[in-house]
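Chain A, query sequence.
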Amino acid sequence: MEARTRFVQLARLAGLTNQTTVVTEDGRPLAAIAPIGAIRPDPERPNPAAAGWIRRIDKLRAEFRRQHVGLEQALEDAWRELDRMSPPGTDKQVDALRTAHADIRRPGPTG
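Chain A, predicted structure.
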């Protein structure tokens, strides 16, 4: 109980006086009780956890880009085959699909 009371006192002191208290064991520093304004990330020392997440996100982005290119190519191939099998003007349902997807389709050999 005394440790809790002392800790709260030191925390309040830090906030009121902008003073940092270093907690030691056998003369070796273990932790610090510091005012919240004194805790700022060091821009020269990146957070290793953040760096790991950034690497993972970058890896996923690259994988998604690769998959996206593959899907775009597959879709382009499917439309090309559909255009070959049912040229524009020969099937009303296929023409309706062409119209509905015109905004995302790459222009093919028939337009």
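The beta strands are 21-25, 28-33. The longest strand covers residues 28-33.
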